C-alpha cells in the first residue's frame, strides 16, 4: 500500500488535480486576450495556458498554477486561458474523496516557490530586479520577451522601480 507521499508523487506526475477537477466540477473557462483579469475570492482559478503576473505580489503564474480564494488582478504577459471553480464545491468534493490534503500540499508547494521568488526579488537592486523578472518570465514564455513586449510601465510597477531604471536595465 502506498503512503501519503508516494500517492502524492503519483498525483503530481499525472496533472491529476487539473484533470480531476475539470472532469468532476462545473467550471467557467475564460480565454484571456486582454491584458487584465480579476480573480474572485470565492473561486479557485487554475492557469490552463499562457503566462500571467499577479499584480499585487508581482509573481509569475504559468500553466498549472492555482490562485486559491483571492481577490487579485492578473496581468496577461501571453494570451492564455484560466478556469475557475467554486471554492466551496471544490473543497467539498476533495474532502469527500479524501484528496483535500493532497490538494493543499500542491498549494503549499506553489506558495513556497512564490515566496522564494519574492525573497529573491526584494534582495536585488532595482536594476537587477528588472533583469531577474525578465529572466524568470522568459523561462516560461513561448517566445523571448523584453520590457517593450510587456510594457515599461508594467515592468516598473512589478519591480517597484522607476521607468528610468527599467530603461537603464536594458
Characterise this structure.
By secondary structure, this protein is of the alpha+beta class. It has a domain at 4-98: Jelly Rolls, CATH 2.60.120.10. Helices cover 51% and strands 24% of the residues. It has 8 helices and 6 strands; from the N terminus they run H-H-E-E-E-E-E-E-H-H-H-H-H-H. The chain has helices spanning 4-13, 16-24, 87-96, 100-123, 126-140, 147-150, 152-159, 163-169; strands spanning 28-32, 36-38, 43-54, 59-61, 66-68, 73-86. Strands 1, 2, 3, 4, 5 and 6 form a 6-stranded antiparallel sheet that branches. A hairpin with a 4-residue loop joins strand 3 (43-54) and strand 4. Helix 4 (100-123) runs antiparallel to helix 5 (126-140), helix 5 (126-140) packs across helix 7 (152-159) and helix 7 packs across helix 8 (163-169). It is elongated, with a radius of gyration of 17 Å. The model has no long low-confidence stretch (mean pLDDT 87).
Q: What fold name goes in the CATH topology slot of the domain at 4-98?
A: Jelly Rolls
Radius of gyration, CA atoms, in whole angstroms: 17 Å
Unreliable stretches, pLDDT < 50, 5 or more residues?
none
Number of helices: 8
Q: What's the mean pLDDT score? A: 87
Strand content: 15-25%
| CATH class category of the domain at 4-98 | Mainly Beta
**What class do helices, strands and sheet pairing give?**
alpha+beta
Helical content class: 40-55%
Q: How many strands, which pairing sense, and closed or not: the largest β-sheet?
A: 6 strands, antiparallel
At CATH level 2, the architecture of the domain at 4-98 is Sandwich
Per DSSP E runs of 2 or more residues, the count of β-strands stands at 6
Distance between the termini: 54 Å
The CATH H-level superfamily of the domain at 4-98 is Jelly Rolls
What is the ordering of alpha helices and beta strands? HHEEEEEEHHHHHH
Please state the overall shape, judged from the principal axes of the Cα atoms: elongated
Organism: Listeria newyorkensis
Protein name: Crp/Fnr family transcriptional regulator
Amino acid at each position: 500500500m502506498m503512503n501519503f507521499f508516494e500517492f502524492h508523487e503519483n498525483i503530481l506526475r499525472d496533472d491529476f488535480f487539473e484533470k480531476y477537477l475539470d472532469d468532476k466540477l462545473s467550471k467557467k473557462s475564460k480565454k484571456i486576450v486582454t491584458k487584465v483579469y480579476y480573480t474572485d475570492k470565492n473561486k479557485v482559478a487554475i492557469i490552463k495556458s499562457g503566462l500571467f503576473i499577479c499584480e499585487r505580489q508581482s509573481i509569475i503564474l504559468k500553466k498549472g498554477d492555482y490562485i486559491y480564494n483571492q481577490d487579485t488582478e492578473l496581468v496577461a504577459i501571453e494570451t492564455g486561458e484560466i478556469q475557475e471553480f467554486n471554492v466551496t464545491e471544490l473543497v467539498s468534493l476533495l474532502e469527500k474523496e479524501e484528496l483535500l490534503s493532497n490538494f493543499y500540499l500542491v498549494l503549499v508547494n506553489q506558495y513556497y516557490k512564490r515566496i522564494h521568488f519574492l525573497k529573491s526579488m526584494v534582495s536585488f537592486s532595482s536594476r537587477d530586479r528588472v533583469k531577474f523578472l525578465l529572466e524568470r518570465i522568459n523561462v516560461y514564455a513561448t517566445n523571448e520577451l523584453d520590457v517593450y513586449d510587456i510594457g515599461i510601465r508594467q515592468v516598473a510597477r512589478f519591480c517597484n522601480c522607476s521607468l528610468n531604471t527599467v530603461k537603464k536595465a536594458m
